[in-house]
Design brief:
By secondary structure, the protein is of the alpha+beta class. The chain has one domain. 24% of the residues lie in helices and 36% in strands. The protein has 3 helices and 9 strands. 19% of the residues are buried.
Length: 149
Amino acid sequence: MRKLLYLLLFLGTCILTACSYDSETAVKNGDVINMHGPVYNFPRFERFLDNIEAKEAAAVRITNYTLEGDPTLYNLSFDGSLFDLEIDRSKNKDRGDSPAKVNIACSELVSEEGQQLFTYTLEGCQQDPPVESFTILSVMKEQVEDHEH
């Protein structure tokens, strides 16, 4: 009986840790991480932008954390002409009635330079219900050194 209890505790712990996706795991996986201000692994996103400019296939994962620490994963890929964005909210316990995963196809990635931010937005998006554009990342200017636009 004691062995069964230990086995159940072990399995429960494994399941709970598998369901979480903390920032340490995201860093190890090479994700671009948005923590409501600081963006980590930004050079990974810059390489993605370089590939897009060269019309080469590329992929990047952007992990956005809520104030409560729940992740929403943006799996963004580019096939040389079109963008595919998978929004994965499966690990966000406060997603409400939103589906766990949504896919959006878009034709363009636009960067805008504001007074304090660089903002990256997908445009020409096709989804049901319709979405014209979708902002995937905003980066504070002071955080980005030697960033070319």
